[in-house]
Amino acid sequence: MEGMHLAKLEAVVEKMLGNLADMRRQNAALQAEVAAKKEQIAGLEARLHELKENQAEVSSRVTTLLSSIEEWEGSLEETGADVDVPDEEGDGGYAEPKGGGLFSLGE
Q1: Distance CA 43, CA 89 (A)
Q2: 14 found inside a domain
Q3: C-beta of residue 82 within 8 angstroms of C-beta of residue 97
Q4: 28 pLDDT exceeds 50?
Q5: pLDDT by residue (tens digit) across 62-95?
Q6: Bridge partner residues of 94 (DSSP)
Q7: 43-57 average pLDDT score
Q8: Which of 33, 76, 89, 103 is the most buried (most CB within 10 A)?
Q9: C-beta separation of 100 from 106 below 8 A
Q10: Domain contains 27
Q11: Can you give the pLDDT at residue 63?
């Protein structure tokens, strides 16, 4: 009877040791996956930072271009220079420019 209990106990201990080994393998695999995901996140954060810097540069350049256009329009108004604007009939003639500048909404 005692031998039967001992055999049962051995079987339970072996099963537990097998489960422990499986858990350690799973843990190692998950740790590797977490490390890979952290590396991927770091790469994506760096890319996001790069894109934000690029966006800021483009925004700055567009603002500078718009300011230059506004200055150009202002200098035309000051000098009274006419700007040739194609007429709506499309016959090659030119219409008088409407006020408001290049980016006006037909004011």
Answers
A1: 56
A2: yes
A3: yes
A4: yes
A5: 999 999 999 999 888 888 766 555 556 666 655 5
A6: 86
A7: 98
A8: 76
A9: yes
A10: yes
A11: 96
Q: Which two tokens stand for residue 29?
A: 């695999």
Q: Check if the beta carbon of residue 97 is closer than 8 Å to that of residue 107.
A: no
How many domains in the chain? 1
Whether 73 is in a domain gets the answer yes
Give the CA radius of gyration of the chain: 38
User: Greater confidence, 102 or 26?
Assistant: 26
C-alpha distances in angstroms, 69 versus 26, 43, 59? 63, 39, 15
Buried b (16+ CB within 10 A) or exposed e, 17-44: eeeeeeeeeeeeeeeeeeeeeeeeeeee
| Containing structural domain, residue 72 | 2-79
Q: Please indicate, yes or no, if residue 90 is contained in any of the structural domains.
A: no
- Written as one letter, the residue type at 38 is K
Phi and psi angles of residue 77, each rounded to the nearest 5 degrees, phi first = -65, -40
Q: What is the pTM of this model?
A: 0.54
